[in-house]
């Protein structure tokens, strides 16, 4: 919906709803998957949808007649069929545009295994096929990158290296980025990007140019945690260096970089990608993480753009 999801708030909502439902003798459960799809497809980003559902369910309980007995059975069946067809079309057919061939094959094999065997065993088979695909991708990645500008200590560096250069946040990624790296990637980048601290000030005042603000700017990390230095400048540009990245899967592209793009975009922060392998660049473009103009072959070219952008902004 374009806003950051507060997972703790969502879990508390589901938990308290189940408590109330259980105390009143009702059923327990979670969000209605079909309703979520309907809401997303209709782009009704409003609380009115939830209010309408609440009122409708109260009416069904209060009315002395069985409302469901007047609803045609084929309507409920058609609704379930629509949800299933929509998901199959998105993840079995259209997903090939956002994945490489082998990852798409993993999705199909998992789907066939679940339907031909059983849910539990099919999921285990799917996990095994996904693990095999990861091993194949990992062993095909280059084991040595010749770079005379770096020393041997880089081998010991973590997955995400963050350096903040004033209004520019610089991140270096290392190794093979896959589904297990998503959480570390998101947390590492959010800790290195600084934004104006949330307050009751108007949006217009919040996004004034840096030069027009007081030197005592109160900032916080992108994830809402306190910044290590309260006097540091808010981030305007993020530079992501892929020099030492050997590969990446679709889950990392969508689960990490697409989310980071949305988080940074909400704050007016631009992201630049440096020295990205062709196959990774293609994957990022397929998943609409960025545009072709955001790729740079060298770090110097990216920093020159940053310098020009900051100079023009001031």
From TrEMBL:
Its main location: membrane. It comes from the Eukaryota. InterPro entries: Membrane-Transporter-like, SLC26A/SulP_dom, STAS_dom, STAS_dom_sf. It holds the Pfam family STAS. It is a multi-pass membrane protein. Residues 171-306 form the STAS domain. It is found in: Membrane. Keywords: Membrane, Transmembrane, Transmembrane helix. The chain crosses the membrane at residues 48-68, 74-94, 106-136. This is STAS domain-containing protein. GO terms for cellular component: membrane.
């Amino acid at each position: 919906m374009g806003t950051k999801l507060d997972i703790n708030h969502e879990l508390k909502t589901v938990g308290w709803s189940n408590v109330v439902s259980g105390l009143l003798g009702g059923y327990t459960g979670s969000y209605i998957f079909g309703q979520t799809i309907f809401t997303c497809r209709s782009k009704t980003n409003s609380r009115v949808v939830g209010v309408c559902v609440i009122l409708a369910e109260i009416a069904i309980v209060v009315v002395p007649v069985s409302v469901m007995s007047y609803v045609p059975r084929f309507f409920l069946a058609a609704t379930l069929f629509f949800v299933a067809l929509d998901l199959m079309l998105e993840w079995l057919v259209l997903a090939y545009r956002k994945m490489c061939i082998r990852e798409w094959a993993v999705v199909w094999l998992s789907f066939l295994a679940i339907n031909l065997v059983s849910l539990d065993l099919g999921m285990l088979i799917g996990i095994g096929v996904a693990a095999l695909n990861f091993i194949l991708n990992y062993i095909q990645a280059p084991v040595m990158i010749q770079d005379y500008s770096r020393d041997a200590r880089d081998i010991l560096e973590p997955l995400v290296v963050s350096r903040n250069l004033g209004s520019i946040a610089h991140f270096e990624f290392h190794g093979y980025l896959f589904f297990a790296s998503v959480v570390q990637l998101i947390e590492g980048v959010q800790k290195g990007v600084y934004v104006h601290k949330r307050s009751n000030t108007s949006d217009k005042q919040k996004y004034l140019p840096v030069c027009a603000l007081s030197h005592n700017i109160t900032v916080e990390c992108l994830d809402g945690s306190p910044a290590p230095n309260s006097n540091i400048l808010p981030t305007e540009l993020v530079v992501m260096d892929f020099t030492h990245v050997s590969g990446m899967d679709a889950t990392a592209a969508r689960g990490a970089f697409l989310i980071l793009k949305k988080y940074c975009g909400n704050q007016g922060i631009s992201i630049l990608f440096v020295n990205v392998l062709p196959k990774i660049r293609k994957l990022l473009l397929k998943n609409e993480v960025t545009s072709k103009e955001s790729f740079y072959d060298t770090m110097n070219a990216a920093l020159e753009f940053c310098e020009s952008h900051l100079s023009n902004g001031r």
